[in-house]
Design goal:
about 180 residues; alpha+beta; 4-stranded antiparallel sheet; two-stranded antiparallel ribbon; 7 helices; 6 strands; flat
Length: about 180
């Protein structure tokens, strides 16, 4: 007589799925601050432009650069610099609306995408962030680490089509802000 039957191989893939999810998260985020990274920020900005949302409701990009950041890394340590970046990221996050997209887009540079935000509101948000950064003090040993924030503001024009071009322009605005102190 012939034996009838089947073999079932069961495998728990939850660990593999967790690993894949982690890889995916790491690809889109800055591991130090937990914020989105430059690539993800550019993708979001490009999506806004492609969908044409900026033509219906005013939107803006804030490009922020920490002042005197190299000094902290050199005079204290890189660990102090990392602590400062984490503190700044948390301060920025708590000062923004839930709908705003905040990202770490460079070593000591942050970007914010403000969707559906009229120009006068954009200016007051930028000023609020600048003042919050000025008040941020981080104790490090016997020192108190302070950092200013230079902010470039770019109101997204209706005919904008390139996220990378907008980021370049916002970076230039930030550079001018830094020059003017």
């Amino acid at each position: 007589s012939r034996a009838n039957g089947a073999v079932f191989v069961l495998r728990d893939v939850s660990r593999e799925q967790q690993y894949m999810d982690q890889l995916s998260w790491n690809a889109r985020h800055d591991t130090l601050t937990g914020l989105e990274n430059r690539g993800e920020f550019e993708r979001r900005l490009q999506k806004l432009l492609t969908q044409g949302s900026h033509q219906l409701k005013p939107s803006a990009v804030l490009y922020m650069d920490l002042d005197q950041f190299k000094l902290i890394n050199e005079s204290c340590t890189r660990a102090a610099g990392d602590e400062k970046l984490i503190a700044v990221a948390q301060m920025l996050q708590s000062s923004l609306r839930e709908s705003d997209c905040l990202a770490r887009i460079g070593g000591d540079e942050f970007g914010v995408l403000l969707e559906n935000c009229p120009p006068d509101k954009v200016s007051s948000i930028a000023e609020k962030l600048r003042q919050a950064a000025q008040q941020l003090q981080l104790p490090w040993g016997k020192k108190m680490l302070r950092t200013g924030l230079s902010i470039g503001v770019l109101h997204i024009p209706g005919d904008a089509s390139s996220a990378s071009e907008l980021l370049r322009m916002a970076d230039m605005a930030c550079y001018r802000a830094k020059e003017r102190g």
